[in-house]
Amino acid sequence: MRLRKLGSSDLEVSEISLGSWLTYSGGVAREQAEACVNAAFEEGINFIDTANVYGRGASESLLGEVLAGRSRSSYVLATKVFFPMSDTDRGLSKEQIHKQIDASLERLRTDYVDLYQCHRFDPDTPLEETMQALTEVVHEGKARYIGFSEWPVAEVERSLQIPGVERWVSSQPQYSALVRIPEAQLIPLCEREGISQIVWSPLAQGVLAGRYRPGEAPPPDSRAASDSMGGFIGALMTEPILEAVERLRSVAAGAGLTLPQLALAWVLRQRNVASAIVGASRPEQVRANASASGIELDEETLAAIDAALGDVVHR
């Protein structure tokens, strides 16, 4: 497993990281989740990403239990704040940031997180208030560094102009061979400012892994067939997209790779990407994803990917 430096921080994170969005917030049983975390460590994955809102604390609590027996220095832990945790608790106000970091640390059974991320931009709170609160969290030792996820580029630029506050080290956008929106403005800005991408859904929720075939019902054990995990995949399950992914099978075979390896290596070809976050419900998925680390795609393969996907790519 290769490591990459996270932005301007002193953190080194594994190229493949373990996410917990739909899986460890209730999508899979505790035993499966623990087996996946153990497999991640065995494969050299040191970066684990979660959020307070995943299962309204369930994911953080599970990870707190599973990680309790491991040395805190053996992994890089990231969580997030913004989405509602109750009828009254939401957003990025000073009060909420301080309240939610304390609650997250308690559930995670740790004194600090390595990375504290703003899950979305909060238009209802002055940006200066948010940045100052995040700075206080870092100065208090409760988080080592800060990041953002899916913020408008204009707001990222505005935040970078505020004096005397902590600097972002990471951005967490949706990015894959099918969803390339960050390439236009976000990645160039982050490259200039020493901010790395840690990307979510690099396998397009399993679509780029080849789990779904055009004209066929989703496998019964798949995310798309799950009541608890399938609510966000609909836009990626169109026939044109599934047909385009079918064309990728020959590209992967020609490169001597599996489809997941091809898709993850495509994301990691971008040097501004520090890590690709991948969920897993079974240990063998963790191992298969981890095997993508270190794979380099040549120009012919990259061109073949573009040709196969054609106009279904979202830019």
Structure in words:
The protein is of the alpha/beta class and 315 residues long. The protein has a single domain (3-209, 270-295), classed as TIM Barrel (Alpha-Beta Barrel), CATH 3.20.20.100. 37% of the residues lie in helices and 14% in strands. The chain has 11 helices and 10 strands. The chain has helices at 23-27, 30-42, 58-67, 94-108, 127-139, 153-159, 186-193, 239-254, 259-268, 283-290, 299-309; strands at 3-5, 12-14, 16-18, 47-49, 76-81, 113-118, 143-148, 168-171, 196-200, 273-278. The longest helix is centred in the last third of the chain and has 16 residues, at 239-254. The protein is globular. The two termini are 30 Å apart.
Largest sheet: spatial strand order: 3-10-9-8-7-6-5-4
The overall strand count is 10
> What multimeric state do the chains show?
single chain
Order of helices and strands: EEEHHEHEHEHEHEHEHHEHH
Structure at a glance:
The chain has 315 residues and is an alpha/beta fold.
Could you list some keywords that capture this structure?
alpha/beta; 11 helices; TIM Barrel; eight-stranded parallel β-sheet; globular; 315 residues; two-stranded antiparallel sheet
